[in-house]
Specification:
Blueprint (H helix, E strand, L loop, with lengths): L3 H13 L1 H8 L8 H21 L5 H6 L8
Length: 73
């Protein structure tokens, strides 16, 4: 079971991907193939990139959750 900081990170990311998750779970069973899964993974990556660009301060999500902000190098 995920607890503590990992659970908070998972929840923060899931909230940012709500629309994507709902679209995924609305699929009929058997409709998810590797091509569509790849699309969802690319969309999630793109959403994360966009969210990072919109942060008021670099690394804000990391700071909010108590993680170190990664170096830019």
């Amino acid at each position: 079971m995920i607890t503590g900081r990992k659970e908070n990170l998972a929840m923060a990311i899931d909230l940012r991907l709500t629309d994507l998750w709902s679209e995924l779970f609305e699929l009929e069973p058997g409709k998810l193939d590797t091509e569509l899964l790849g699309w969802f993974l690319r969309a999630a990556y793109g959403q994360g990139y966009t969210d990072a660009l919109r942060e008021t301060q670099r690394g804000q999500l990391c700071l909010d959750l108590g993680y170190a902000v990664p170096d830019t190098a």
